Amino acid sequence: MGQKVLVIGSGAREHAIAHALQRGGSVEEVTVAPGNPGMELDGIRTTHIAESNHAALIDFMKDNGYDWAFVGPEVPLIDGLVDDFAAAGLKAFGPDKAAAQIEGSKDFAKQLMERHGIPTAKYATFDALDPAVAYVREHGAPIVVKADGLAAGKGVTVAMDVETAVAALDDIFIDHRFGNAGAKVVIEDFLEGQEFSLMSFVNGTEFWPMPISQDHKRAYDGDKGPNTGGMGAYSPVPQIPQSVVDEAIETIVRPTVKAMADEGTPFTGILYAGLIATADGPKVIEFNARFGDPETEVVLPKLTSDLAAGISAILDGETPEFTWDDDRVTLGVVLASDGYPTNVVKGAKIPTIPVDEDSHVYYAGVSKNEDGELVASSGRVLFVETSAPTIKDAQDKVYAVIDALPTDGMFYRHDIGFKALK
Ligand code: AMP
Ligand code: GLY
C-alpha cells in the first residue's frame, strides 16, 4: 500500500508539489486542500478545507487515514499548523511556528544573520516614522525599505532616490498600507548583482540543496512595473557560476541551518534562500520557510527521485535521497489577470492549453463558473512550464504555446529567461 499525502495550499506551487508526489512510485493518493479545479485535470483530488482551518485539516487526515501532510504556503506555517498537527499526533513537513519566523519576521532573520556572520545587506529596524526618515536622509540612496511582516512580496520598495524611500515610509507608517505587517520597518543597503533562488530540503540539522533558479519579480518586460509574487522562472541559471552556488551553500545555507538548530529553533522543511550574487560574494535578500512560487514549478520537474519517499524519510529521521536531472533546462511563464498586482480584474476564460510530454500547465487562481468552465479567480492564474536542451529552446517552445492562445483578460511577460541570454 502506498502513502496517502495531503498537500495544503491552492496555487501553482502546490499543483507542482502534488504532481511531483504523484510521479514518484510510493504515493497511492494525493489530495490538496483547498486546491483548485485546474489540478483535477491531472487527476489530483481536492477537498474544500481552508488552509486556515487547522481542526478540519486534522480531522480530514485522521478520518481518511492520511500518512503525512506537506504545507505549501507561509501563512499556515507561521500560524503554527505544523505545531497543531504534532499536538494531534500527525506528521507534517514544514517548519514549526518558531522556525517559520525566519520568513515571518524580517527582523528575526536579520538578527539571526548578524549574530552568525551570515552575509546580507547592512540594515536598521524602526517602529516609527521620524527616526526612519532621518536614517534614510542621512544614509542616502539607493536604499531598500521593507515592511517587517508578511506582505506577499509586495512590501518592498527598492528606492533609487531618497524621496521614493520617504514616500514608502509614509505609506507604511501614515497610510498603514500593510496593516500590521508595517508596524515595523527594515531599511537596508541596496545590493547590486543578479538574483537567484537556492532552495534546500532540511531535516533540522542537515540539508540537501536543489538546483538553483531565477524568478522575475516585476510585472512587465525588462523588469519594469510593480513587484509581484513572481511572473516566471527558469533553472539552471548559467550566468551564476557553480563556485558562487558552492560559496552560498557554505557561507549561507550551512551556517543558517546550524544557527537555527543551535538557537533552539531547528528548521525542518524547505528553506528558500533568495540571494544576490554581489561583487563581494553571494548575500541574502530574504529567507522563505517554504518552496518558492514560481521557482518550484521549474525545479521539481527536474527531480528524478521519488519526492514522497525523500520527505517521508526525513519525517522518519532517516537519510533521504534526492537526485536531479542536471541536463534538463526548465522555463515557465505566469499568465496573470489584467491589473495584477494592484487592481486584479477576475473572470478571464481559461483556454485549453496544448502541451507536449516535456511540458506542463500548473494552475493557480482558477475556479469553475456555472457552466463548469475554468475562469480566472485571482491575480496569478496559471503557469506554463517546459523543458528543452537550452534556455533559448525552452523559451521559444513555451512562447510558441502561449502566443497562440486566446488570452483575453490576462497578460504575461514576453522575456522570461532574458538575463541568461544576454
Ligand atoms: P523581498 O521581498 O525581500 O524578496 O524583496 C523583493 C525584491 O526587492 C527582491 O526580489 C529584490 O529584487 C529586491 N530587493 C530586496 N532587497 C534588496 C536589496 N537589499 N538590494 C537590492 N534589491 C533588493
Ligand atoms: N518567488 C518568490 C517567492 O516565492 O517568495
TrEMBL record:
Record pathway: Purine metabolism; IMP biosynthesis via de novo pathway; N(1)-(5-phospho-D-ribosyl)glycinamide from 5-phospho-alpha-D-ribose 1-diphosphate: step 2/2
Catalytic activity: 5-phospho-beta-D-ribosylamine + glycine + ATP = N(1)-(5-phospho-beta-D-ribosyl)glycinamide + ADP + phosphate + H(+)
UniProt xrefs under InterPro entries: ATP-grasp, ATP_grasp_subdomain_1, PreATP-grasp_dom_sf, PRibGlycinamid_synth_ATP-grasp, PRibGlycinamide_synth, PRibGlycinamide_synth_C-dom, PRibGlycinamide_synth_C_sf, PRibGlycinamide_synth_CS
One Gene Ontology molecular-function label: metal ion binding
Pfam families linked: GARS_A (PF01071), GARS_C (PF02843), GARS_N (PF02844)
E.C. number(s) listed in UniProt: 6.3.4.13
Cofactor field: Mg(2+); Mn(2+)
One GO biological process term: purine nucleobase biosynthetic process
Keyword terms: ATP-binding, Ligase, Manganese, Metal-binding, Nucleotide-binding, Purine biosynthesis
Occurrences of domain ATP-grasp (ranges): 110-316
Family: Belongs to the GARS family.
PANTHER family, sorted: PHOSPHORIBOSYLAMINE--GLYCINE LIGASE, PHOSPHORIBOSYLAMINE--GLYCINE LIGASE, CHLOROPLASTIC
Protein name: Phosphoribosylamine--glycine ligase
